[in-house]
Amino acid sequence: MEAIARTAMYPQHRCKNIYLVRHAQGIHNVEGEKDHSAYMPPALLDAHITPLGWSQVDSLPEHVTKCGLDKKIELVIVSPLLRTMQTAVGVFGHESNTDEASASPLLMVEGAGHSGHKAISSLNCPPFLAVEACRERLGVHPFDWRSSITKYRALFPAIDFSLIENDEDVLWEPEVRETTESVAARGMKFIDWLRTREEKDIAIVTHSSFLDFTLNMYGKECHPAIAEELSKRFANCELRSMVLVDRSKLGLDTPTCDFPGKIPAGLDLPSDVADKKHIEEASNGSRGAVGCLEHTHMSSPTCLIST
């Protein structure tokens, strides 16, 4: 009877751990999730998080530390909107005292974005990188418009905005809502880009619709139970860990823990058999056979596995 594998194996160097976080409660979430017409007031432009949202942010670092993620995460990628940056620095940074404020750049200045929150230091924290590709669904809703990068740099000095080309928001349009298909395609392209980075443990602080549409696409290639798990909507300030697997050599990294085995190199055969085989190959000019696995074609060169 033919054996059927119910698990999968991949070389470790073709995998990354990613930690997906939805932003904490924003001012738009309070009424807007009950009535979508409440999403439209101009006062919600680039929405900041609420006092309850800050309470959610303050509760997550303890879990991050308990799980050891504070020692593992090498990079924090954040959507360049106020609510996601507040969440990211609040979770993966730490409150600054006077000495730290003078010794290292601040992740967030005191009171940034109507927060009333203390300054947050970058001391002993991973680097933070703002990336537009993981923004929320674009267009129409005022809270999904971003402020200028000039303004953000003043509020979040230690966040790296170098990958953002335009100071003002040129992606958001007041009367055109990005399609769900476009968000999903953008999300999958973003995940493929993550695969090319050298870091192995990466946190991404982003938005509910971006996560919903992106993970639903990956779920199409999974067992229904896994697809259901992936498609579950994120709560505010929820963190989920995933394994990102490279299935098409997008990444260029090489194994760091592998060891080549027998040294010096040679045929791993009894010496008399090896000598005979060597003589035959030398006289016949025979070529070695290369074994390969035939991979089933899939739509995405990467896959996500919930952990």
Give a short overview.
It contains 10 helices and 10 strands.
Structural write-up:
By secondary structure, this protein is α/β, with parallel strands linked by helices. The chain has ten helices and ten strands. It has helices at residues 27-32, 51-66, 69-72, 82-92, 98-103, 149-155, 180-195, 208-219, 224-231, 271-284, and strands spanning 15-22, 75-78, 94-95, 106-108, 120-121, 128-130, 159-160, 201-206, 239-246, 302-306. The strands form two sheets. Strands 7-6-2-8-1-9-10 form a seven-stranded mixed beta sheet. Strands 3-5-4 form a three-stranded antiparallel beta sheet, with helices on one face. Strand 6, helix 6 (149-155) and strand 7 form a beta-alpha-beta unit. The model is unreliable at 286-298 (pLDDT under 50).
Number of helices: 10
Distance between the termini: 31 Å
The strand count comes to 10
Q: Kindly estimate the percentage of residues that lie in beta strands according to DSSP.
A: 5-15%
Rg value: 24 Å
Helix share of residues? 25-40%
Query: How does the overall form come out from the CA principal axes?
Result: elongated
Q: Sheet with the most strands? A: 7 strands, mixed
- Poorly predicted regions are 286-298
Coarse structural class: alpha/beta
Strand line-up across the major sheet: 7-6-2-8-1-9-10
The overall pLDDT average reads 83
Order of helices and strands: EHHHEHEHEEEHEHEHHEHE
